[in-house]
Amino acid sequence: MHASLPDANALITRLVDAIAPTLTPDTFIVGIHTGGVWVAERLHALLHCSTPLGTLDISFYRDDFSRIGLHPQVKPSNLPFDLEGRAILLVDDVLHSGRTVRAAMNELFDYGRPASIKLAVLVDRGGHELPIRPDFVGLTLEVPDNQNINLSRLDDGHLTLSLA
Amino acid sequence: MNLQLSPDGNLRHLLTLDGLPRTILTHILDTAESFMDVGEREVKKVPLLRGKSIFNLFFEPSTRTRTTFEIAAKRLSADVVNLNISTSSQTKGEAILDTVDNLAAMHADMFIVRHAQSGAAHFIARNVAPHISVINAGDGRHSHPTQGLLDMFTIRRFKGEFHNLTVAIVGDVLHSRVARSQIHALTTLGVPEVRVIGPKTLLPTGVEQMGVKVFHDLEAGLAGCVVVITLRLQNERMKGALLPSAQEYFKFFGLTQEKLAHAKPDAIVMHPGPMNRGVEIDSEVADGPQSVILPQVTYGIAVRMAVMAILAGGAPA
């Protein structure tokens, strides 16, 4: 299965090409920890965004908190701008159930009322449980429920996708 | 059996810092760090404890601790009920358990307990249903773990690390649950030198066994310190005549700018509050540039949020 996964960088390039024509000077990119932040950092650089990059840790907004508790390594969310009236491009690595994106949107609204939120994901692996679909997608791939698709970052900063 | 930890090492109750491993202390401090920005948002809330009921059970009066616990619980979206139970009524044994059983019947998820008797929170923790967590908010002279944790959080924020610090705790260690919690936390987190400074009558006998150096002279004790923690002179806990007068205490052990000059120039000054100005600390120091007493209060909210979130997340469903 590994061989069939495309290079993560090629998928990022595909996302850049799709996003670039829609980008306005008022677009703010926000990545979801941890993989989404890696992708967001690349998009932010490749799209030459002049607005600051935001990061979200949705641990405090997860809907499975009462079952699995707090994630052991919660990172602070960092949104170094006023959300009010902004166009937000939310970035994650893999879209699966959609629950992470829902939690991220809930958190964003606790900071203010954005004018719009669009969603960019590196991989949409199917298995959606909520009416959430990406606006920009690098790769659409049906992955069986018993498998996981993961983005990891090597020491040299290289991003790779793996299926397990 | 360790009442505080589950068999797999998760925090079940927070009763004392004595015996808690460094990994748990650090996990609480790290989690508190990520709660710090919640207070600055437009909506100062996260939905983590939505639908949970938290009871503040205060058998002994408190303003700051009860208020910061209440704010912390509300920022986590919990429902908070404050109960100030008079100390004049019989509040021992059966009476406490009756109170607790009644509140459990109202579907409480967490109890925050302050009591004048040492061991009260442990007693309640031993007798509650498994899904209920207990936080000790101060019991007698024994322990005040969230205060100890917020003090560690304050030290880490201003000094960065623990492994290179000399910390002095000044004053009425004998009656201070705060000092006990601080000493346990400081030694667990790897502070190489913890000092206690005070008159013989206000230091517990055998305090050296907790891993601290004892000083009876303020100037000598402060030399080389980067963190100076002043303790409140516990008038209400002072049954015997341990001191000639508050004035004389101030003369020898009150922290003035002149005395503070013996510590390192970048030393921070802490106090758990409420302060007796002109007794254990001079106003010039309390309001001066080295004082971090008000940040301590702010950090107390994030630290209490962290403890509650970790307890609520770790409890069996």
Strand order of the largest sheet of chain A: 2-1-3-4-5
Helical region count of chain B? Answer: 11
Q: Name the structural class of chain A.
A: alpha/beta
Order of secondary-structure elements of chain A: HEHEHEHEEEE
Q: Describe the main β-sheet of chain B briefly.
A: 5 strands, parallel
Sequence of strands across the biggest β-sheet of chain B: 7-6-5-8-9
Count of DSSP-assigned helices of chain A: 4
Q: What would the average pLDDT of chain A be, to the nearest integer?
A: 93
Relative strand content of chain B: 5-15%
**Rg value of chain A:** 15 Å
Shape of chain A: globular
Biggest pleated sheet of chain A: 5 strands, parallel
Explain how this protein is built:
The complex is a heterodimer of chains A (164) and B (317). With 164 residues, chain A is α/β, with parallel strands linked by helices. Chain A is 25% helix and 26% strand. Chain A has helices at residues 8-19, 35-46, 65-68, 99-111; strands spanning 27-32, 54-56, 87-95, 116-124, 136-140, 149-153, 159-163. In chain A, β1, α2 (35-46) and β2 form a beta-alpha-beta unit. In chain A, α1 (8-19) packs across α2. The model of chain A has no long low-confidence stretch (mean pLDDT 93). In chain B, α1 (22-35) packs across α5 and α1 (22-35) packs across α11. In chain B, the strands form 2 sheets. Chain B has a 5-stranded parallel β-sheet. In chain B, strands 2-1-3-4 form a 4-stranded parallel β-sheet, sandwiched between helices. Chain B has 317 residues and is an alpha/beta fold. Chain B is globular, with a radius of gyration of 19 Å. The longest helix of chain B has 22 residues, at 293-314. The interface between A and B is medium-sized, with 23 and 23 residues.
